[in-house]
Design goal:
The complex is a heterodimer of chains A (631) and B (317). Chain A is of the alpha+beta class. Helices cover 49% and strands 27% of the residues of chain A. In chain A, strands 14-15-13-18-19 form a five-stranded antiparallel beta sheet. Chain A is elongated, with a radius of gyration of 33 Å. In chain B, helix 4 packs antiparallel against helix 5 and helix 6 packs antiparallel against helix 7. A four-stranded antiparallel beta sheet of chain B has the order 3-4-2-5, with helices on one face. Classes of the chains: A alpha+beta (631), B alpha+beta (317). Chain B: This is Protein-export membrane protein SecF.
């Protein structure tokens, strides 16, 4: 018999190798240290680039490859040491309202970028950067939703002319409406039940008052938490994008936490400023004259006191887009789009209130450094978070509003500041930073260099051993091993954008060990076949076939474990699991199909040739005969 | 004798091996209970001291100065600018929880003083705080659940592909490897950090791989060879897979030793953990998994292909 792969199979393998090579190629081009400059609120102006360039020249920092787009300017530098100096220089020249972020810029040639090849993302431990763990205030999210419900109930009752004796928020998941008689209550119940599928209705009487209880089901509360976390994550992603960090991670952790990792970023204070400076909007109606003083709060607006009703007409998270534009009268305006439910809410609230004023509150969570005196009488600096509420619009409702409307009467500057702030800032619930850490770039580089050197030496030793022990077959195994590492790198760079971490390198190392294991299994089987007297061609075929089930069983079980670890684990565990999974798949391909193709090319055509697979014991008789002679 | 090669009677010493392993496991558990693990800064709380220099600071020099003065475990990172550094120190366990913040202030002052005397630059102490662990209880918890789920899935898979007795064998071998590796970490006070955790996960993969290869041979021999007691079957299988077991352990150890000596400080813990794990894993794939299968009275019938049974049934008129 002859061992031959059909031509298409050989071509397929060749194709995979070429693709693997191409897509791992970008990793050979080192990143340039760079600075990314953007404005906190608005787009950059034309004069910014010359200012930056002259600031860098004055500071005697060499730079090149300036890239300018409407949102940011990127300047490349020669080395990491220049980065901090250059940053200080630019910050001094531009002032506080600009964001100057330390960054790394890719140098991948354009033809590689054109085929979608990119660099592997390096984790914080290999590149340095900042890490934050943020906690979402779920109680606030639930309260906000319930307040939303409360004002909707009020509107519906008013529309249907049902008299109530008061609406109360009892807890974050419970509100009650009081009625004078049973008829009002049952009418209200039938009107409300359709509009609030999320709530459970219950009637009860107390002290002659007919009460309708509306409670949020635990499942709904859970759903709101999931949505809130998701919404906050999206907002954070938008915010992080403005930092210009090359490969940010914004990942959900547990039920109420979000991990933000900014590789290459070296300045946590800067990052906190951006991440925390997140705004939410609330739409309110102006309080009616003579309203009880507990039902409104007073804000300043253009030097005048305005009483804003406490009921929220609409939450900022219903805003799907906000664009700055000039209206038909060439007046600056911000055009707002709401989602479907937001449009309904807005319409319901405004159609009965034409000529009343609509107010928009901008709520920002800000941080400030406070100095406190500790027990020993020393001054200690600490970061404190606080909510800053500001009335940003106080305009008369001219007609009922729907899903699209615009805010006018702003100056050009106000309008252009407001639009991006609303766009990126409609945060579903407030967040606080519960932990932060910084890893320096030098430490990351050291980790990376040593890790890579370790892999290289390890692969070298294994290659020498395999060559020595299995001769020509060892050569095939070594080719497969190199191909395997190439494929892992290619997959991690382009197909699955996984982040390489130190545990990830470890995963690759383990794969190197496991990948040769598949070949060791196959080659030992071939040797066994040869020693029991099979001719070379049969021995090769039987060796591959018999080892196949073993390899599948062993790899599949390990893959299952890796998959479980990936699903359940976080951070480093995931990094390890993903490389292990990728490695298992690529190593099965290279160790089984790849080596077979090479072995077939060398031995497949010639039936009599002796195999060069190292020494094996020649047995007198095959297994089965011995068995028959056995006990 | 079934095969005319030199056969090693692995299962002849199975009682001794079993007792030896049980003793090792008990020692490990006792050590873990009383000695605990030497958790690294990833898992424990510490003190963060922030310092500002009047001129650019070289991290290596700071590291050296701290090391020379008894702060071997200090981690130094720059933050914000090239003049600001942060020194992370493991927390002093003897200090009561409530006093840790006060302790952090004292530690901060002594560090600032120490570095001031060893550097020409003017140093300002920006602050020193007590910081909580990088990896909270959540990871430990989710990691634990992860391991249990992984174990359950392995058991189901092996029960499907092989037989339930093999599931027990594989899982016992796995638990054996993990407990003894952790025990050695605890006994010799080797630091347990995130890298060691990754190594522990790698050991699961490695140990399982080894065990499955051996089990696979046992299954094949039970189906192929008509005669022989279960002990003989296991012995034949172990001998047949021995060269593979040794070669794979050897290549993996080659890899690990090069990482231990070259890979740098941050991966040393990983390499040590995995070297221990590979040695124990190799041992357990020979002595533990097969031993358990034998104790559970594995028979040829356990491994007969179900397809064949069905075919035979069809033949019955």
């Amino acid at each position: 018999m002859l061992n031959k792969y059909p031509a298409w199979k050989n071509i397929l393998i060749l194709l995979v190798v070429i693709l693997g090579f191409l897509y791992s190629l970008p990793n050979l081009y080192p990143d340039d240290p760079a600075l990314q400059v953007s404005h906190e609120l608005t787009e950059l102006s034309e004069g910014d680039l010359p200012t930056i360039m002259s600031a860098l020249e004055a500071a005697e920092v060499n730079f090149f490859g300036e890239e300018v787009d409407s949102e940011s300017i990127l300047v490349r530098l020669n080395n990491l040491d220049d980065q901090l100096r250059a940053k200080t220089a630019i910050e001094e020249a531009l002032g506080d309202s600009y964001i100057v972020a330390l960054n790394l810029a890719p140098t991948t040639p354009s033809w590689l970028q054109a085929i979608g090849a990119g660099k592997m993302n390096l984790g914080l431990d290999l590149q340095g950067g900042v890490h934050f763990l943020m906690e979402v205030d779920m109680e606030a999210a639930l309260t906000r939703r319930m307040e939303d419900n409360l004002s909707n109930v009020r509107t519906i009752l008013r529309e249907q002319r049902i008299r109530s004796r008061g609406l109360n928020l009892i807890s974050i998941s419970h509100l009650e409406v009081r009625f004078a008689n049973d008829e009002d209550r049952s009418q209200a119940r039938s009107e409300l039940v359709e509009g609030f599928p999320d709530l459970q209705f219950q009637s009860r009487e107390a002290e002659g008052v007919f009460i309708l209880d509306m409670r949020m089901a635990p499942a709904t509360a859970l759903q709101i938490q999931t949505d809130t976390l998701q919404a906050n994550r999206t907002t954070l992603l938008n915010r992080v994008d403005t930092l210009g960090v090359s490969e940010p991670t914004v990942q959900q952790q547990g039920s109420d936490r979000i991990v933000v990792e900014l590789p290459g970023m070296q300045d946590p204070a800067q990052a906190i400023r951006i991440l925390q400076r997140i705004a939410t909007l609330e739409f309110h109606l102006e309080a009616e004259i003579g309203a009880p003083s507990l039902s409104y709060e007073t804000y300043e607006y253009e030097g005048v006191s305005v009483n804003v009703d406490n009921d929220v007409v609409l939450q900022g998270d219903r805003i799907s887009n906000a664009v700055y534009q000039l209206d038909q009268n060439s007046q600056p305006s911000v055009n707002l789009s709401l989602d479907a439910q937001g449009g309904n809410q807005m319409n319901r609230a405004t159609r009965d209130n034409v000529n009343r004023r609509l107010d928009i509150l901008l709520i920002e969570t800000k941080s400030r450094t406070i100095t406190t005196v500790n027990e020993e009488g020393e001054e200690v600096e600490d970061i404190e978070f606080y909510e800053d509420k500001k009335l940003i619009m106080h305009a008369t409702i001219i007609q009922a509003l729907g899903r699209q409307f615009s805010i006018t009467g702003l100056t050009a500057r106000e309008a252009s500041d407001l639009a991006p702030l609303i766009r990126s800032g409609s945060l579903a619930a407030p967040m606080t930073i519960v932990e932060q850490s910084v890893i320096g770039p030098s430490m990351g580089q050291e980790n990376l260099d040593q890790g890579l050197l370790g892999v290289q030496v390890a692969a070298g030793l294994v290659i020498i051993f395999m060559l020595f022990y299995y001769r020509t077959f060892g050569l095939a195994a070594n080719a497969a091993l190199i191909m395997n590492i190439l494929l892992i790198v290619a997959v991690m760079s382009s197909i699955i954008p996984a982040t390489l971490t130190l545990p990830g390198i470890v995963g690759i190392v383990l794969t190197v060990g496991m990948a040769v294991d598949a070949n060791v299994l196959i080659f030992t089987r071939i040797r066994e076949e040869l020693s029991s007297g099979s001719p070379p061609q049969q021995a090769i075929d039987a060796g591959y076939n018999r080892a196949f089930t073993t390899i599948i069983d062993a790899n599949l079980t390990t893959f299952l474990v890796a998959a479980v670890l990936y699903t359940i684990g976080t951070g480093p565990v995931r990094g390890f699991a993903i490389t292990l999974m990728i490695g298992i798949i690529t190593s099965m391909f290279t160790a089984i199909i790849g080596t077979r193709a090479i072995v077939n090319l060398i031995y497949g055509g010639k039936s009599g040739k002796k195999l060069s697979i190292g020494s094996y014991r020649k047995k007198a008789k095959p297994d089965e005969l011995n068995l028959a002679a056995g006990k | 004798m079934l095969i005319p090669e030199k056969q090693i009677d692995f299962m002849g010493v199975r009682k001794i091996a079993g007792i030896g392993s049980i003793v090792l496991i008990i020692v490990s558990i006792v050590s873990l209970a009383f000695n605990s693990l030497e958790f690294g800064l990833d898992f424990t709380s510490g003190t963060s001291v922030r310092l500002s220099y009047s001129e650019a600071v070289i991290v290596q020099d700071v590291n050296q100065a701290l090391r020379d003065n008894g702060y071997e475990d200090a981690v130094v990172v720059t933050f914000g600018s090239d003049r600001d550094i942060r020194v992370l120190l493991p927390v002093d366990e003897s200090v009561a929880i409530g006093d840790q913040a006060a302790q952090a202030v004292i530690v901060g002052e002594s560090i600032a003083e120490l570095l001031q005397s060893s550097s020409g630059s003017e140093i300002t102490l920006l602050g020193s705080d007590y910081v909580s662990a990088k990896v909270g209880g959540e990871l430990v918890e989710s990691g634990g659940i992860g391991m249990l789920v992984a174990l359950a899935i392995i058991m189901v898979y092996i029960a499907m592909r092989f037989q339930f007795k093999f599931s027990v064998g594989a899982v016992v071998a796995l638990a054996h490897d993990l407990i003894i590796t952790l025990g050695i970490f605890s006994l010799f006070r080797i630091e347990f950090n995130l890298n060691t955790l990754a190594a522990l996960l790698a050991i699961i993969g490695y140990s399982l791989n080894d065990t499955i290869v051996v089990s696979d041979r046992i299954r094949e021999n039970f189906r192929r060879l008509r005669t022989g007691t279960p002990i003989e079957m296991v012995n034949i299988s172990l001998n047949q897979t021995l060269s593979r077991t040794l070669i794979t352990s050897l290549t993996t150890l080659l890899v690990l030793f090069s990482i231990l000596f070259i890979g740098g400080e941050s991966t040393q813990g990983f390499a040590v953990a995995l070297i221990i794990g590979v040695v124990i894993g190799t041992y357990s794939s020979i002595y533990i998994a097969s031993n358990v299968i034998l104790y559970m009275n594995v028979t040829r019938e356990d491994l007969m292909l179900p397809v064949k049974e069905g075919a035979e049934l069809d033949d019955i008129p």
